[in-house]
Amino acid sequence: MSNSLLHEKVRDAWHPERWRDFTVIVAVSGGADSVCLLSVMKQLKSQSLGRGRLVVAHVNHALRAQASESDADFVVQLAEQLQVPAVVVDGGLPSGQGNQGVGLESALRKKRYELFSQIAAQYGARYLVTGHTRNDQVETVLFRALRGTGLEGLSGIPVRRAVSDNLTVVRPLLKIDRQEVLEYLASRQQNYREDASNGSLEFTRNRIRNVILPQMRDSFENSVDDALLRLAQHAENHKTMLRLLVKPLLEQYFCVQKGEVKIRCEGLHNQSMELVKAALRSAWREANFAEGDMTTSKWNQLSRRLMASATLAETLVETYPGPVRVSVKKNTMTLVSGLGQSTV
Fold first, then answer.
1. pTM here?
2. Domain identity same for 272 and 173
């Protein structure tokens, strides 16, 4: 792919007028996708000028001993070549249970975003950009479908996601195929780091990328990617419609602030459980509660609790994953972030 064509695609996805006057953190692992992203962002920034600046951020999880150190060194050298400041932070290895396969992937991802957010705050950045591509979107949708996710998961990776009031994650390469990225880097004779662990079948995403998707493409004549992307778009469309339906419930019954949600229970027992559940999930996210361990059964349980709370004769106190303490008293359900009684 020519340099100008890929630049145009990224410009169309996220025009420099939207970000050139802000500090932008570019997450760079050293792999092909993030190296491509940094190169294109640097070119667009040079052309568009503006008051803002780019800052490279790299998290070293030290998963691969010397190879991880070499990744960090490569990123620093690349940033120096492009005359972009770089920050390298130690991501460490998460401790505790679930640190294999999906559990480890999830823990590392969460840690990275925590550190990126800290770097963004340090530099007063308005945006964090990551190098997720069309291939990542396909893999994510299939991964979540196989886990039995709902609409939220099936819609895949969002192009934009607000992390806080001051920071938004943007993925400018999300509609660009990885092969286009590789062709772009080859045309510029730009090196990048190869992560040997990408071939390990210990990680679910690697099994999907290296085994399951290739087999599906062979069986369905390469139409699998487009079909999964259409599924994600259908899910996103339905999410949009659901948000419109849920808005009146949120305005009438919910009071949300960071770390706390108060819900007036009276009248909710007449509503559709699916709408109540969607309103709960929306309020949960707006309050910045952790959502990872809230399974479908947990959402259903909490929704039923809420719909039945108007007639509850005694005080109820439970703790849901997050942890989030849920209490019901005098026709009001209160959700508060923090430790409580045993998790239900």
1. 0.85
2. no
